[in-house]
Amino acid sequence: MGVSMRDGAKLAVAELNAAGGIQVGKRKLLIEVVERDDEAKNERGALIAQELSAMDGLAGVIGSVNTGVVMAGDRHFQEKGITKIITPAAGSDSMTQWVTAGAKDLSIFRFAAADGIQSAMVVAEAVRRGFTKVIILHDSTNYGVSGRDDLVRQIAAQGGKLQVVATEKFNIGDKDMTAQLLRAKAGGAQAVLIWGIGPELAAVANGMAKLGLKIPLIGGWPLSMSNFIDNAGKNGNGTLMPQTFIEEPINPRVASFIATFHKTYNVTRMASPVSAAQGYDAVLIFAAAVKQAQSTDTHKIKEALENLKEPVPGVIATWRHPYSRWDPANELTHEAFRKEQTVMGEVLDGRVMFANQADKDRLAKAGMGR
Amino acid sequence: MDPQIIGQMLVSGALMGLLYALIAYGFQLTYATSRSLNFGQGELVMVSAFVALTFTNLGLPYGLMLPAALAFGALAGLGVERAAVRLALRQKSEGWIMLTIIVGLFLASAAENIWGRDDRPFPTPIPSDPVHLFGIDITPLELSVALGALGVMGLIELCKRRTLLGKAVAAVAADPDAAELVGISATRAVMLSYALSGMVAALAGVLVSPITTVGPTMGAVLVLKAFSVAVVAGLDSGFGVVLVGMFLGALESIASFYLGSGWREAPGLVLLILALAVRPHGVFGRAAIRKV
Lengths: 370, 292
Description:
heterodimer, A: alpha/beta, Rossmann fold, 2 domains, four-stranded parallel β-sheet, three-stranded parallel β-sheet, 45% helix, globular, B: mainly alpha, ABC transporter involved in vitamin B12 uptake, BtuC, two-stranded antiparallel sheet, 11 helices, 2 strands, 74% helix
C-alpha cells in the first residue's frame, strides 16, 4: 500500500514539475519530495513525525498507511501546525481522535474513505444480498478493532437486520484460521464481514475453501491489495470491498493515469490501485492549495485547503471544495471522501472490478467533463 | 456440539502440530550430539523456503527443487555450525546461544533485503482442494506435511539405530571424549547433526509454504511453538515430539474455538510452564544423571 501510494504521489509530482511547477507569485516552484518509511511500526512512525515536524521549510506531509502509525505520530504535526494529508490509512480513530480531544484547530486532513463510510457500505451490501446471519472477523491491530466497532455500530444503525453469530479475531502473521471459521460454520453464517490486512485475509479465504465454506467475504478495502489477491488465488473470487478507485480505464483521464503508471513503474497491474490513485490526487489537491495560498508556508496551505476555490480534476473525482473549516464537533470537515466517491469492488481472477455496473457508468460519465 | 466440528479441529490442529514436531526435531538433532541448539532454526526454515521459491521461479520442477532446497538447508546448517557453534563448544562456553540468535537475525535481515518484506504465494503441484473423509475436510497439502514430517523423522531415527554412522553419533552424544578415543571425530558428528538439522528445517519450509505463504517473518511464529514442543517432549525423544506436537496443535484449535481466538496461544504456554515445573527434562525425556 505504502509503495503504491508513494508511486502514485511521485507520478503527480513528476507531472507537475514537468509542467514547470506551481505558480507562486512571479516564480514557478518545483516540488521537492522528502521520503520516509515508517515500516508500518508505530514507534518508528512517531520518530519520523518528530523529525519531519522539526524540519525547516517543510510545506506539508502526505501519507501513513497504518492507523496505528497515525495515532502515534500525528500529534507532533498538530502541535507544530504542520499540514498533513493522511492517505491511505482509513481507521476512524485517525480523525475522531481530534474530536474526542476537542482540538480547536486542526492541521490534519484525510484523503481516504474512512472506515465509517466503508463499514456502512459493507453492512448495506450484506443486507442488500438478503443475508441475516453473519460472522465478524477482525485482526487485533488498532485498525481491526476500530473496524469491528464500526461494523457493530452500523449493523445497529441499519436496523439490526443482521444477526452476528460470532465475533472472532486473529493476529498479524496468523496462518491457520480453522477455529474462527468453524464458528462461522457452526453458527450458519451466510457471509464473513472482515476487517484486516492482506496476508491474513488471504489465510481466511484459503481456510474457507478448505472447509468448503462457500459464503462471500465482505470487508474493508485492503481486500483489494495484491498480497490478498495473489495469496488467495481463485479462493479470492467474489470477495467484495469498498474502493475509491478501480483499475479499469473507464474514462480518458483514468485511462491515461493507468497507462502512465504502468509505463513509469514497468508493471501490468498496480499493487494497490486505491493507494496509488489516492496518492496521486492528494498531491494534486495539495498543489492546488499551495497555488491558492501563493505560499509554501504550511499554515497558509492549511487555510487554503480548508477553502479550496478552484475544482481539482483528479483521477478519482473532480474535487470541489473537499475540505472546510475544522469544526471541533464534526471530523467530516477534514474528510474529503463521502459515499459518492466510493464504490463496491469485486475480485475476479486476480483483479478488482466494479461489483455494480451502475457505479461504473456513473463514474465513466463523471470523468468526461474535463 | 457437533462431533464433526470437533473432529475437524482435532485433525487440522494435529496436522499443523506435526510441523511443529518436525522443527522441534531439528532442535533435538543438534542437542543430541553437542548439547547445543540453533536458536535461528526458524530463520533457516524461512530462508530455505525463499530459496526453494527462487528455484521454483527459475523453472525447476518440484522433484528437482525439493532435493536442491534440502541440499541448501544442509549447507546452511553447516554454515551455522561453523560460524556460531564450533568455537563456543571448543571453549566449553555457552556463546552459541547468542551467536545462533545473531546468525538468525542476520538471515532475517538478509531475506528482507533480497526478497522483500511481503508474503508471497508458493506454487506447488500438490492440490489444495479439500478431500472429504468421514465428514472432515483435509487438503492433500496438509497430508503432504504430515507424511513428509513423519517420513523424514522415521528415516533419521532408523539410521540412528541401525547404521554404524548412527551409532557413532550416539557415542558422541554419550561421551564426546570417549568417542574421540575410539577414533570417532566428535566435530564431524556435530557437523553431521547440524547438516541434518538444516535439512529438516528446509523440508519444513518447503512443506509449510504452500499453506502459509512465504515471508521473512514466517519462521518466528513456528519456531516458538516448536521450541515449546521440544521442551515439553524432552530434548532427546524423537517420538515424544511427534505426540506432543500433535497434541499442542489440536489443543490450540480447541482452545481458540472454545475460549475465543484471542486465547489460542494460552494453553500451549500453560502446558510449557506445567511441564517445566513437573518434568523439567520433558514428558518423554530421560532424567540425566550427572556425575560430579
